Amino acid sequence: MLHFAQRLTSLRSNVFADMDRAKAAARQAGRDIIDLSLGSSDLATADFILHEIERSLWDRQTHQYLLFHGTRAFREAAAHWYQRRYQIEIDPETEVLPLVGSQEGTAHLPLALLNPGDYALLLDPGYPSHYGGVALAGGQIHRLPLRAERGFLPDFSEIPPQVCDRARMMVLNYPHNPTTATASISFFKEALTFCDKYNISLVHDFPYGDLVFEGDRPPSILQADVEKRRSIEFFTLSKSYNMGGFRVGYAIGNPELILALRQVKAAVDFNQYQGIFNGAIAALNSDTTSVQATVDCFRQRRDAFIKGMQEIGWPVPTPKATMYVWAKLPEPWSENSMGFCEALVQKTGVAVSPGVGFGESGQGYVRFALVRSPQVLAEAVQRISVFLRG
Ligand SMILES: Cc1ncc(COP(=O)(O)O)c(C=O)c1O
Questions:
Q1: How far does Cα 158 stand from its chain's mean position?
Q2: Using an 8 Å Cβ cutoff, are 251 and 234 in contact?
Q3: CA distance 137 to 25
Q4: Cα(122) to centroid of ligand 1, in Å?
Q5: Which pLDDT tens digits describe the chain residue by residue (390 residues)?
Q6: Mutate to test the pocket of ligand 1, among 129, 182, 246 (most ligand atoms within 8 A of CB)
Q7: Which ligand 1 atom sits closest to the C-alpha of 247?
Q8: Domain with CATH 3.90.1150.10 in the chain
Q9: 47-285: in CATH 3.40.640.10
Q10: Distance between CA atoms of 253 and 260, rounded to whole angstroms?
Q11: Is there an atom of ligand 1 within 6 Å of 244 CB?
Q12: What's the gap in Å between 385 CA and the centre of ligand 1?
């Protein structure tokens, strides 16, 4: 028997791995799978981005290792993008860090912030990788339960004092995966006041800042922490530009936090291929046409899906943002989201994510990712209807 580190244990029990097995079994049984379980956009990366990556490919200067100093052009593009959007000055040298997708950054950050036993305050339900990163760093997780009555925003007054004293980071994520909730600047200010009190780093994972269907543009955490006292924010090109497979994102924020994450990353990777950065620069410098087309597409899907669910007698809330629908399960499934998802994929081929996979407070919910055309979503809704009646 080989020896493995204990930290692997907490990564092994994963509801999504169980769902993958259920999907594979349904496929093997001949089911035609409609996979709405992953937040992976099915839309195409825009041609102008691909052309830039293609052009780079034939520029042999781009084929070497890319050290931090080589990423300056990308960091400048990210800083300018941010400044245009939020009117807050960003120093591309000290306040921006390129990432191999934002997940890489949020998962590595705990290694820079937590000593064994320190607490990270994480949203429940929340993005599984936030949990995984803390577990890898040997930190303890304190869950901030999100309830519909509070608009899926955490209540900081519920956190026990002994946890506050040993908390070193808090991770927020609005617009939120999976609940689709949005937050205001005043909520972020409340979070900042709490973090100031206990000297906690404030982390905001912000992949859905563009995917908004109505209302104001969602705030950046730095609009609350304009002096960048203790905040770091994570951005990605995966959603806004349908570039998930290219793995490109970046962090912006407090220079000490950026440096600490950069030090961890320096031990792990040499950044990704420069051509990908060149494609990302083209995306960040472009006008809003391609992002708007993506938003319009997800809005159309959202409207079609919501209407279909209403018609089959399972009304679900209309999300203001993200590419998801977060739905409360009808009886007899209200305490068994995993059972619902396994049975649904087995009987109908429709794969969705069990709420409990995002944390205990997600029990009784499912998440639909609207990553198929309105026609395919309509077919999924019909199959769900038959399943619920059966
Ligand atoms: C909250 C959240 N963070 C991060 C990611 C991953 O982004 P990336 O592709 O940049 O790693 C996702 C993707 O679904 C997400 O929902």
A1: 25
A2: yes
A3: 34
A4: 15
A5: 999 998 888 887 777 888 899 999 999 999 999 999 999 999 999 999 999 999 999 999 999 999 999 999 999 999 999 999 999 999 999 999 999 999 999 999 999 999 999 999 999 999 999 999 999 999 999 999 999 999 999 999 999 999 999 999 999 999 999 999 999 999 999 999 999 999 999 999 999 999 999 888 999 999 999 999 999 999 999 999 999 999 999 999 999 999 999 999 999 999 999 999 999 999 999 999 999 999 999 999 999 999 999 999 999 999 999 999 999 999 999 999 999 999 999 999 999 999 999 999 999 999 999 999 999 999 999 999 999 998
A6: 129
A7: 9
A8: 6-44+289-389
A9: yes
A10: 12
A11: yes
A12: 30
Q: Is 240 in the pocket of ligand 1 (CB under 6 A)?
A: no
- Selected from 3.90.1150.10, 3.40.640.10, 2.60.40.10, 3.40.50.80, the CATH number assigned to the domain covering 6-44+289-389 reads 3.90.1150.10
205 lines ligand 1 (CB under 6 A): yes
Give the integer Cα–Cα distance in Å for 211 and 324.
10
DSSP line for 85-145 = HH-----TTTSEEEESSHHHHHHHHHHHH--TT-EEEEEES--HHHHHHHHHTT-EEEEEE
CATH 3.40.640.10 location in the chain: 47-285
